[in-house]
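lol ok so funny story. i was supposed to be doing the assay writeup but got distracted and ended up predicting the structure for this chain instead. priorities right. anyway since i did it might as well share w the group, maybe its usefull for someone
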Amino acid sequence: PLYTLWSVFQACWNLMFPRPKQDLPDSAEVAEILRGVNNAEALDPWPADADDVDSRLRKKFEACESARQQANTQKPVVGVEASGVLRDKVAPGVPKPKRSSGVDLSTETKETLPIGQELFLPNGMRVFLKDTDLFEDEIVLRARRWGGLSEYQGTNPFNKGIVTTEAQVCSMAAAMLGVCGMQVEDLQECLEGKRLEPNPPSMDTYMTGLDAAASPVDLETLLLLLHLMFLCPVDATAQSRTRTSLVKLSLLAARLAENRDPMAQFQKRLQRCISQNHPFVRAPTLWSILRLNFKTVSNIFNDSLKMPCEWTVVLVGRLPPPEKLTPLLHKYLGSIPNLCGNAQPERRSEIAMRESVKPVDIHFPTKSVKEDVKLNMIDPKGSTVLCFPIQLTAVAEAGNAASARAELAELFRLRILVRMLETRLVEVLRFNKGQVYTVSCGDDMSTSPPALGKARKGTLSIGFECDPAEADELVDVALSELDKLRDGSTAFTVANVEAAVMQERREFEECFQKNDWWAGTIQDLYFSRCQAVTEDIGASMSLWWQVRSEVVSGFSTDIAWQTLLAVLPPSAPSAVVAMRPKGAKSGKADNKATKQD
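and the output, tada:
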């Protein structure tokens, strides 16, 4: 409606006040202008810039000297031995990636090699380093801490459980307001000509993380930017009204674009359906963006960066030698103070940090639900998603390595089963029926409670695009195929298992040779349940590697069938959400917009 009103206003304005015609000079007037320029006196040189772009970041770093002095006067961080010494982390059975020659991943190596080095800085920040030769000009950085959107849910009766708009847009708004103590334009000038990809921290359900990449030549600049991001908070009050208005306008434009995007609307309706319209999944409204409090936005963003002792940083790639890299880490990352007032900073244990996170209690519908999402489209398109609730039977418990191993094994078996389901449904819906191009299957446990001792739960989704008139028929075919797999009438074959295992191994071999995979895997293991049990990244990596190898090598048709029955029992409810063009009729005459069995 706002966009339509604006278009009508522009049309009326152009009708009442026509644009003036362009009055361009003719050739004689152009010649006269050129003669005047040639006869003019010498012009004064262009004034020099107020500051040097190349030294702008360095001057900003020097201006933070007083804040760094605070780190020197702080008490030692409780809960960590900040010796500043690199310690090798050994993971028995895990091979070392090599660029020159391939690594055989089908068998477990008998060598005991360090997977990297771990360092605790004086301010409590944990840093993991893994030097590889996979790419000569690449260093990948991953940083993460506990605490995300679940901490910013409303508590009063009108907005209970709803994540505040300020928290949902804080990363995007902070990037436009300016991070590292500089405006966006000034920071872009400083990074011109550098192979550097910094990103501001962003929040998901339970964590806050940032990703970055740089060449070895620009590694020091990347560390300098991280230093300034922590020490130079975003100050919305120092911004001009024009700047904040532009930021708000950009947020409104992005929100309006979502309203006009059929797929974005479909995903919102899907989340609303499988979460029973839980307040946590609701998107910001236009009115809440118009009333956005930029001071609260900056406070939320700055709060995530005020305690470096809560962060874990992983660096993977062509790193400098330790004697050169360690001083840089102490200079830029170890000198960041913990802003905790007069209290002594503390780095809590993995279990304590997990238990401090506020969980999100989202339940799947107890009965099967079917819903049609009818939207206005330029090109008619149909998309259908089938969702099922899943819950692991194995639960990791504190101090029990066997429980962590059992939970990991169940996760790996679930991943292979999802791959086999996708292959089977592609055969049935594409090759047998010929009515879809591809089928995608996946699992999502992002809202599962992070605390130990609680079962991991989530959803398993099956999605495909087809003619809207054929969606109901294909849904029935997919559900029928799942029933046949459960009762054994069309069971998985040995060929199906071998194909899934082979595909898993090939994809794993490709990922094994990428720095990005190593950085992401190590970071995920630091925040995994097995890390909370082992409390050592080397032991966690070794356990993860051994369990994966055992599951992949020992997977069989019987295990696939048992996993299917455990994950998707016959009595499991389902949610079917289909996107159709507005005005289109469903495949069945008696089909209603929403059904509950």
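The radius of gyration is 28 Å. The CA atoms of residues 50 and 447 lie 49 Å apart.
back to the writeup now i swear
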